[in-house]
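Changelog note: in this version the structure field was regenerated for every chain. One regenerated record is shown below for reference.
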Amino acid sequence: MRSGASAGKPTGHRVRRVWGVTLIELVVVITITGIIAVMLGSLIVRPIQGYQATLRRAELVDAAEMALRRTARDIRQALPNSVRIRDSLGNTNSVTCNAAGVTCAIEILNTMDGARYREGPGNIGHNHGPTPFRLRINAADTDGFNIVGTFQNISVPFDSAMQTPPSRLAIYNQGAIPAVTCNGSGADAYSDAGCGAGSSVVITNPAVVAFTISDDGGGDEHQILPVGGSFRFRWASPNQRVFIVDTPVTYICSAGAGGNITRYSNYAITATQPTNPAVAPLSGGSSALLTTPVTRCAFSYSPGTNQRAGLVTLDITISDASGEQVRLLHQVHVDNSP
């Protein structure tokens, strides 16, 4: 039978072999892949960490630099010999704050503008010979005086009483605290700021006498006239310099946890330099936070002489939550020629 004859023959189907990996091969591949991943990870992570550290330092530098530049700008605009440095412990001129509860302060009297006052006659533009054009020193001056030329930073007509705070005039501030304020022998604007009517001073008191500034009629000089009183400046300036002062400005540095640098302005002028922002006069003024957190600050001041500029040194250290720190030092020359 055909069926019987074909029973022992192959059916024609091929046997397929299945190829795979062993457990040992799989473990080797996983191990090698892990080693490569770790190596690649370290190559990628380190540059990222470096970039993040650089970014943090750049942000800290920007914050510190902004605070230093703002402080330096105010110091350059200070009334000659009005820079004062003091800490809350009573140290002056060279102070360092690196512990909680101690504050370091820089104070200045900010000038809006300055010029040379007329003390003699002149014929530029028109005749400036008459007495009303000239300033009388240490005597009641009721008719005002001219400056040589015009102010550059203010617009006329100008009314000191309309400013906030009211403006003052200052001549020959030496920062020398007198034994007796008002009519004394010293020349300190801070001590004279509250003197009464008729007092001989180096800075006017807006509560006693205001002033206006306008063209003198010739178009070439500005004239300053007293309102509600008279001028009586104690000393003549060797360079005939007169300044318009608007507000005291203080920078307070508190170091330690949450330490910061804050700017205060528009507060009352006092003979003793304030260092506590929580009490008057600083508490009654305006404030603006400049930078934080500050871990250390050091301020020093060398007054110099009339022939040599003073020097203020600002040294601050700030940090962030990661512990990154930067320290910046800035020096500012101060023109103390009154």
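Spot check on this record: Residues 1-6, 124-128 have pLDDT under 50 and may be disordered. The chain has two domains: 56-109+247-334, 118-236.
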